Amino acid sequence: MRALFGSMLSLYHFFIILGGVLPIILFEFGTIRIEEYVGSYILNKKQRSLYDFFMKRRVELDENMRILLDKVQFNCGIEDRRLLELLNRSNDVISVYGISTTEGKSCSNIGDSLFSGLGDNKSGLVYSINGERVTLSEVSEGDTLIRISKAQGELFWLIRSAKLNPLLFTSCKDCYSLNGFFPWFQAGFNLGNRDILSESEIRDITVLQDKSPMKIVLSVGADFKNHVKEISLWVMFFLIFLYYTCYLSILFICFLRRTSLQGKIKSALLRADFIPFYQPILDVSTHTLVGAEALVRWRKNDGVFISPANFLESLEGSELMLDMTSQLFRQVVKDMDNLTADIWVSVNICSEFLESGALYDILKELGWPYQQRLCFELTERLPIYNIENAKQQIEKLNKKGYHFKIDDFGSGYGGFAYLNEFHIQHIKIDKMFIDAIGGCARQESIVDGIILSAQRCNLQVIAEGVENITQSAYLMERGVVLQQGYLFYKPIPFDAFSLLCEAPVMNK
């Protein structure tokens, strides 16, 4: 359970949990935004389709009027019927149009009988358009009759509201109310759900308005809001489904990769492919090599060495980490058999390796090797959960002559709390703080504070990650003479390190 909790604290597991619950957390907030987007999208699309319809009707009506007025003979003869048939081929939005003569004859694009009754309706609003007397009258709900009277007879256009039904009632029958004043073909019309206009909260969208007084307004109310909420829920569910599909796919790929990686690590442990590299630690005051930090490397079959950054995180909290640390530790002890007696080596150990007693057991098994030269660095990547148990383990090993350092001091768990709880002889300042040297004064003051605190506690300070002369000189001025970093040496195999140890005095 402790190992599981430790793994959960890692950033990897944090993002897994966050990714799993994020859609649920954002559901309430996201639904509102989606409703706004869906509502605006539907209304904009509806407004655009209605606008296109009315403009097309207007253009078609103007063209139809112009052709009839220019070519009609008012006798419903062959030429008039041929003219109506020709206009009917290009008619999309005008329902009916035709001719009525003073002699009582009538004809239209759909037959001869319709306009005989409509011709008796002489009432209506009268307009003058392009010098022509135009009369508009409502013959039924939403249907408008347009008449132009001439000496030889009259021209008729019947504009039916049924042409608008597919636009108004598609997807939501009672969601819209279309109202307006359009002198070209209707006056004071109201189509769709008229109950919307009596609701307390409605939203109006102007469909058409220009200089000739014409204005058409689309109104929506509660039914539209409910319609939008329903669609938004489906959109949200679809997005969540899409998100979890991608999320679980990525998680599955990561799981396969992680599982596959752990399988390769198990095989590497059986072949003893994890070996130590050594990064020298120098006393810059005397230019002398005094020790090294043992760092794990994975030796592949092709001779390539893999950095721990590529596999160490996947091992944290698992038994494989303990196995790898044990294998690495045994190899370090063997290597120290071939080092001079004045060179010490530090080995990184995780909190669980210490708490579980594995470190104590393996040292006991090996006969307590190199008690004054072999030391251990407590990494702060994962916290120590059982402080009291760890404290007892450190005290037991101190009595055997082994020393402990805090690695990456100040960058992980513990820090000063470990100094207070454990008998620690050394701290290693993390590269993150060393990189701050030469930056702003505030960052350097943090480094100074760490050094001063350690010196007052009689702790030996080692600086790791030193990469330039400026950093080295700054640290040396403050009494930090034990330094480690690429300015001096990268981690190197044991053979190369042992050659260095034969001539420990470095060139200035």
Q: What is the helix content? A: 40-55%
Topology, number of strands: 19
Strand content: 15-25%
Oligomer: single chain
Work out the radius of gyration: 44 Å
Could you describe the largest sheet, including whether it forms a barrel? 8 strands, mixed, barrel
Query: Largest beta sheet: what is the strand line-up?
Result: 11-12-14-15-16-17-18-19
Q: What low-confidence regions span 5 or more consecutive residues with pLDDT below 50?
A: 1-9
Mean pLDDT: 81
Q: If helices are DSSP runs of H or I spanning 4 or more residues, what is the number of helices?
A: 15
Write the layout of secondary structure elements.
Layout (H helix, E strand, L loop, with lengths): L1 H7 L2 H61 L6 H12 L6 E6 L4 E3 L5 H5 L6 E5 L2 E9 L2 E8 L2 E7 L5 H5 L6 E7 L3 E7 L10 E8 L3 E7 L1 H49 L3 E10 L4 E12 L5 E2 L12 H18 L7 E6 L1 H5 L2 H8 L8 E5 L8 H13 L3 E7 L6 H6 L4 E4 L1 H4 L6 H16 L3 E5 L4 H9 L4 E3 L9 H9 L6
Parallel strand pairs: 12-14, 14-15, 15-16, 16-17, 17-18, 18-19
Antiparallel strand pairs: 1-2, 1-6, 3-4, 4-5, 5-6, 7-8, 7-10, 9-10, 11-12, 11-19, 12-13
